[in-house]
Description:
By secondary structure, the protein is α/β, with parallel strands linked by helices. The chain contains eight helices and six strands; from the N terminus they run ααβαβαββαβαβαα.
Amino acid sequence: MNGMLKKVAWVAGIVALGFLIQYPINKTTTTWESWSLPLSGQTIVIDPGHGGPDGGAVGKDDTSEKEISLAVSKKLQSYLQQAGALVYLTRETDTDLAEDGTQGLSNRKSEDIRNRLNFIHEKDADFFVTVHLNAIPSTRWRGAQTFYYPKEDHSRHLATMIQSEIIDNLENTTRTPLAINTLYLLKNAEVPGALVEIGFLSNEQEREELKQESYQQQMAASIYEGMLRYVTEEPEEEE
Ligand SMILES: [Zn+2]
């Protein structure tokens, strides 16, 4: 080691020692455990679709979208919290987000969706997912699908990771993530987000699955794993 290099190493050593003496004292509030969890520091909003007077889609046996979206959202919340994330649900009960005095379902619905958007921004979410179910006149179609607004790569990455985990874990759909321009929440949110349509209430077999606790658990786990990959993996070129 030449003289100059020695001097630099010596100064660096003193500086490092200075930091060690000064800083460890203030770290008592943060445990090693909370730092080592994969979603520590992430704030996530989960939006269970519909609620209250707005039941959303309904199956032939009166199974309603609002009930299953909430059940799956709560299971998803629990996975995310165990991974260290700070998680907020836009609703935790059978209610919408309109003000008490607002009259008429269509007035309530537009107020409700604006308040969901405000909720995401107020909570300062890093990203969000909104959970819905489909119902269409044809009983034939089934399979979960994830949607995103094609404004930036983060939302696409989030939707791609979630859909990929749903495909791999549930082995009952080959649907691919889809860009959509018209959904208010995805379009207007200032942070990345995805909408997961977790299945069709209009398909009898899928409806029966969606009502089962174990299937809801698997669905929540798949969405969770997709969100985890969104945070921990870089997007691939071909996404
Ligand atoms: Zn819906």
